[in-house]
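## retry 2 of 3
previous attempt timed out at serialization; input unchanged, resubmitting
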Amino acid sequence: MIYLQLFLEFAKISLVCVGGGYASMPLIQAAVVDTYHWLSFGEFVDIFTISQMTPGPIGINAATFAGMKIAGLGGAICATMGFVTPSIFLCIALAKIIFKYGDLGAIHGILNGLRPAVMALIAAACVSFVLLAVWNSDKLPENFAATFDMRGAVILIGALAAVRLKIGVIKVLLASGAAGLILGLLG
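## retry succeeded, writing output
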């Protein structure tokens, strides 16, 4: 039963996920953390982090890792297939529509309307991850000054600066991991 649930839940996410892997993260979080409580928020963030570091599309990687954590190898296969299957059919259908009717104003209007929604999904994921990085919580705590994690803030700011300086993602991830290890060992 869990295999069917994983397949259907990730298929549902894939059907409504517009904008790529980062836009899928809040939807995956809502399903696996908030609705079904299959994973804790911390486990989800770990999966998101691992998904960024491994080759391939982040949404598919997240589905695979989440399925593996929830129900082993069978869960990984079902979650991945659930995430991929609707995309295959939607891409084929949309490609036919865009090639045939792409010059119509309605098509441009739809695409222009989807952009802000995609940005909202990505921004929502970003806010959640900033809260986790700096306050170790998925919500801003009431006493946010007392729970502020200076090490997390320093690594976050350093990583943002490195990205703005166009330092490669792998280097940023490796340096951030090393900084976390060193700062953790220093206490």
